[in-house]
Structures are given as C-alpha cells and as structure tokens.
Amino acid sequence: MDNPSRLYRRELQGRFLGLRFGAAVEDEFVSFLRETQTRNVRFCIWIGLILWMGVACWDVARYVQNIQGTANEAQFLKLLLPARLAGLLALTGLLIGMHRRLWGRWQHVACLVTVSVYCITGFLTGYLYMEMGMGNAMAGSILILMAVFLPCGLTFRETMPTTAALLVAYLLAGWWILSPAEWSEFWAIASLLVLCMMMMAFSSYLRERGTREQFVLRRLLDWEAGHDPLTGLANRRSFQKHFEICLAQARRDDKTLLLVILDLDHFKLYNDHYGHKAGDRALQQVALVLEHYAARPMDLAIRLGGEEFGLLSYADDAKALKLRMQHLLQQLQGLQISHEFSPTATCLTASIGIAQAEATCTTDSLFQQADAQLYRAKNAGRNQVCGPDMDMCAEGPELQVMA
Ligand SMILES: Nc1nc2c(ncn2[C@@H]2O[C@H](COP(=O)(O)OP(=O)(O)OP(=O)(O)O)[C@@H](O)[C@H]2O)c(=O)[nH]1
C-alpha cells in the first residue's frame, strides 16, 4: 500500500478544485463526513420538522379564517393534507432512522430523498394556496430550497443535481399549471430562485473545498505525529498508546503480551561504507519485512529510532514467536543486503530480544527486559533471537540453543 502521508501530500498539492480525492482518500473523506456531520444533520432535520409543523398549523389557522365552503376548497384540502403529511412523515422517518442508526452508509441517500420530499410538498402546498386565492406561498420555496444546502452531511456533487432537478421540476410545473396571467409573478419568483440557487451552490462549493483541505491537513498531521516518515511504521508515541490498550486487554483476557526489539547488526559500519542513502533504503526494506509479522489487528510494528525496531505481539505463544522471529532473520538474510564489512555475515543481519509483559509491568520495565535480551543476543555473536528463558536464545537462520 502507498504510504498514507504521500497520499495526503499528493492530495494537498491538488488544491481540491474538482472536489474529488483519489479513491482511497475519497472513501475516508466520505465516511468522515458522515460521522462528523450526523449531529448537524439531526439538528437540521429537527429545525425542518419544527418549521414544517409550524407552517402546517399556520395553514390550518389561515384556512379556518378564509374558509368559504366551496367544493373547490374541499378538493384542495384533500390534496393539502396528504402533502403536509408526506413532508412530516419523511422528516420524522429520517430522524428516527438516524437516532436508531438504521440508515448506515445510506444516510446521505435518505437525506437526499427527504430533502426532495420536503421541497416537492412545499411547492405543492404553495401552489394549492395560490389556487385557493389565499396568498402566494411560492416565495417560501426559496427557503425550502435552501434546506438542500444546509449542512446535511452531503457533498456538493450530491446536492447539485438534486437542486437542479427540483428547480427544473418547479419551472415545468409552473409553466404547465399556471395561467399566462400568473406567469409574470411566477417568473419573478423563479428568477429569484435561480439566483438564490447559484449563490448557495457557490458557497456550498467553497465550503466543501475548505472542509476537504482541513480534512487532509488533519489526517496528514495525525499520521505524521504517530508514524516514522522514513519507514511508515508506527513511532514510539503510537506505541505507547497502543501498548497501554493491549496491556489492559491482556490483563482482562488473561493473555500474553510480548515485546520484540530488533536491532540491525553493525549498521554504523554499513552506513560508513555504503552511505546514508543506502542505509535508509536498507531500513525501509527491513521495515517492510517486519510489517508482515504484525498482520493481526492488535499487533504493531514500530520503528523505535535509528536502526532499532519493535514488534508488539498480543496473545501469542513465546516459543512460537521466537520461531517466527528466527524466520524473520532468515528473511532478512534472504534480502541479500550486501554488508561485506560486517564481522557477523556477508549481508545485513539483525539481533532480536523478546520480553514478556508481566501483570505489573510498565512500558519502561518491558523495554528494559527486552533490551537485556537484545544485549544477550548481541553478546552471543549477533544474528540471534533471545528470550526470557535460556533455551530461548537461538541463532538465525538455523535454530541453535544456547547452553
Ligand atoms: N541511514 C540511516 N542511518 C541511521 C538512521 N538512524 C540512525 N542511523 C545510524 O545507525 C547507526 C547505529 O550505530 P550503532 O548504534 O553504533 O550500532 P551498530 O553499528 O549497528 O552496532 P551494533 O548495534 O552493536 O551491532 C549509526 O551510524 C546511525 O548514524 C537513519 O535514519 N538512516
């Protein structure tokens, strides 16, 4: 996988004009948007619901005052009530679904559908009132349309086609339903609507660009604060956090927690003879191998600093881990990173110390134990794995038990 910091940096250079990241970052952004905006969306829907109910009450009051008992009125009322009810049901359904987390990853679709129902029923009631000669409520459509651009957790690309479709539907409905005498007022409102939509679209675009920039910057900072830029492995800071979680979990589940420290042998000599750049490349290769040994969710591969790496292994058997670490040493030798000045071998090798966390241990005490084992491995001739028991010291690539 590409180093996340490189991905984020590449996105930052793009300046977000097209409001689209690469596939991986886009997925992250959309889930971030859904997660962080849920509260805003709920707030907006509540406001929409209150407004909707307020307007419905106002409708009833106006209707009662202006009622003349004509057949037309009875017919309009038959349409008006379902229209108000549809808006109410759509908003309530969305809210209940959000509180109970029923929508999952379809939340934005549910929002779009609700906003559309909200707008259509708004237009319809406006039109019905106009037909009943009770004042033109169409101007209210502008407010309703604005709801599409409220912070509903939708992206600009999601809101734009919906709004454009609603606007076209509104214009077509007006042109089809209204008489030519009513057109002049309708066009005035329609032009206002178009202007309003353009302004909101522009601000929505700017808002999303800003959100995207903040998102990538934050991800980049978070990532860099917890990782080593050269190898992409976790650093000591993330290790400390992860270690505390693992230790608490291990105590709770009565599981083992093992720390491995891997230190490259004679790396100073390697640097001195092959140069710092070659040293960097070697460190990256070692990190790549080590990462494969931390494939389970609770395991973590770390660069502790310099030519020293770590591996936290949760619920693992110490002996099985020792064998895996020997296998790792074999793999390192298999890389054939030539080190002809090393007194140990003709290629780059490493020494490994393993420590097991006791119930009362701290990060420092665990490191001290692992360091002591590493020291043993170095003293025993390097290219070795040493653990808490004497019989855990073994030379790589072939197992050799120390007496
Ligand atoms: N290329 C490169 N070298 C580094 C980096 N960080 C530390 N080093 C080098 O790693 C070397 C570590 O040397 P020492 O601590 O003396 O250990 P060693 O030579 O490996 O000896 P032993 O551990 O006893 O086998 C130093 O030369 C550091 O300059 C890095 O990021 N890149």
Characteristics:
403 residues, alpha+beta, 6 strands, elongated, disordered C terminus, binds guanosine-5'-triphosphate
Please characterize this protein's 3D structure.
The chain is of the alpha+beta class and 403 residues long. It has two domains: 222 residues, no CATH class; 160 residues, Alpha-Beta Plaits. Helix content is 66%, strand content 8%. The chain contains twelve helices and six strands. A six-stranded mixed beta sheet has the order 2-3-1-4-5-6, sandwiched between helices. Helix 6 runs antiparallel to helix 7. The radius of gyration is 33 Å and the shape is elongated. It starts with a helix and ends in an 8-residue tail after the last strand. The structure holds guanosine-5'-triphosphate. This is diguanylate cyclase. It is an enzyme of class 2 (transferase). Pfam families: GGDEF. Keywords: Membrane, Transmembrane, Transmembrane helix. InterPro entries: Diguanylate_Cyclase, GGDEF_dom, Nucleotide_cyclase, Rev_trsase/Diguanyl_cyclase.
